[in-house]
């Protein structure tokens, strides 16, 4: 079936001057990395001549001197101690302004007047605010709020003591739950409970195995001489590469 096509493929010949071939060659030259850097590679082979007085060298040196920290601070170091116009550092406006800003920022100096004035306040003992504070202290004081009663001595067989013990036992959580202590640590099998039965029923409803019948479980035998089977075999033979 494919013999004629295979023979055709070997006899096709494309002329080298066709527009498609010329376009492919032009595209190859455009995207070629070797041709793209060819001029740069040839320029590198010629070498270079860089003199010490060249403009790029001078520009680099000037940039280095500008960026140098020593050159940047050289003028400032030379001018140290040569201030003119102020006989002392206190009379210099800039230094005075810096000292004033430092004093304002100093927390100790900022709070010095307040700390000195704290010990000079005198409040009368009968002032309304003092009396109100004392009354509030008395109201919120735990010592004055609680007044413990004296210890009573009662006989253990008195009716009120026995009644109080019975009431305490009824209200006690330990006594209330004492009948359940024997159940602690005993496992409980939930088989047969409502939730378990409901879960099983839901699982049966959602079970794909019970809902659908597998194709392999169906008893089916294909007829070998039916028209569609014969047609499929014929097509398979025609499409077979062998």
Automatic annotation (TrEMBL):
Annotated GO MF terms: actin filament binding
PROSITE patterns listed in its UniProt record: NEBULIN (PS51216)
Gene Ontology CC terms: Z disc
UniProt keywords, alphabetically: Actin-binding, Repeat
GO biological process: cardiac muscle thin filament assembly
Protein's UniProt keywords contain Repeat: yes
One Pfam short name: Nebulin
Signal peptide per UniProt: none
InterPro entries: NEBU/NEBL, Nebulin-like, Nebulin_repeat
Source species, domain of life: Eukaryota
Protein name: NEBU protein
Gene expressing this chain: Neb_3
